[in-house]
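User: Fold this; C-alpha cells only.

Assistant: Input:
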Amino acid sequence: YSEEEAQPFYVNAPYGIVLVHNGNLTNAGALKQELFELDRRHINTGSDTEVLINVLAHEIERVGRDQPLSPAVIFDAVAAVHLRLQGSYAVIALIAGHGLLAFRDPYGIRPLVFGRSQQGAGPEVVVASETVALEGTGHQVERDVAPGEAIFVDLRGGVHARQCAQQSHRYPCMFEYVYLARPDSVIDGISVYQARLNLGETLAQRLISTMPPSEIDVVIPIPESSRPSAMQLAQKIGKPYREGFVKNRYVGRTFIMPGQAVRRRSVRQKLNAIAQEFRGRNVLLVDDSIVRGTTSKEIVQMAREAGARKVYMASAAPPVRYPNVYGIDMPTKEELIAHGRSIEQIREFIGADALIYQDVDAMKRVVHALNPLIDGF
C-alpha cells in the first residue's frame, strides 16, 4: 500500500467528485481494462476505489450528457454502475456544487446508514457505515440505506432516494457481527451486541457437547470483540468470567499485519496477561475468530507463561477456511490455519489442550433470528 491509495479519491471530470468506499470489487481488474480501452480513463493505483470512482464519473457523464445534473440523472447513473460492478460496495461521494450521494451494492454486504439532525443553522444529513457514528455526533439514525438503493442529499438538505438495482437482496456480511463492527452498532436491524451474546450461547452448547464444563475453572475473553460471547458462554456453563488480558489500544488489528514475525511480536505488544487470573487454573480462552492461528498460538503460550495449568480455546466463529473476498483484508486460503486442516491439527498448532469452534448453521440461525426479514448470510 502507498499513501496514493488512501481514501478519499478525487476526479475532476465531468464534476469534481470525492469518494470513499467500504468493500471490495471482485471484477476490478476487468473494469480497469474497460476504463482504459472503452471509457478512456486512466487508473493510477492498484485501488479498486479509484476504479469505482471512475466508473461512477463515466456513467454520470454518459447519462447526464446535454442536461442539468439532477437526482434523476444521478440515480440513472448509479443504476448503470450497479450493472458494471461486482462485489461489495458501500459508497459515499460528494459532488461539488450539487450534493452528497450514497449507495449500497444490491446485496447489502457492507453496512450503510443515514440520519438527520435539526441542530445548528439548518437540517443536517449524515451517512456512515455504523449507527454509532451518527449517535456520537448527535444525529438521529433514520434507517439503513437499502441494498441497491441510492440516496442523494441536495445542498438544501433535501433527501432524494431511489432503488437503483434491477434486483436486490439483503445478505449482510456475518463478519461484521462476529468481529468488525462496534458492539453498540445496529446493522440491518440487528444489534451487534445481541448477535455476539447469541453466538456465546450457541458456543456454550457446542462446548458442553465437546467437554465437561467441570474441567474449566475460569472463562477469559481475548479483548475486545469476544467479550459479549465470552460472558454469555460463562453464564451458560456456570463458570466465572474474568478479564485476564489487558489490551494496548495503540496497536492495530494483528491478523491484517504483514508478516508472521510482525504479527507475533505485535500480539505481545497488544496484550498483557494478568498472572493472578491464570496461575494454577484451567482457563477457557474465548476469541471472536481464528484466522491464521499465529495470534492464537502466541496467546495460548502467554497463558501458559502466566501459570495456567491447562489452556482451552473456543472460537465464536466457525473455522475460517476461505478468504472473504468482499472487503476484509484477509490472507490467501493457504495462509488460513483452518484451510485443509482438521480441528485436531489446528489444536496442535496453537498448542491448546482443547479447541472448540462455533457451528456454521447455529451461527446463521441465531443471528438471523434477530431480524427474520434479512434474506440470509
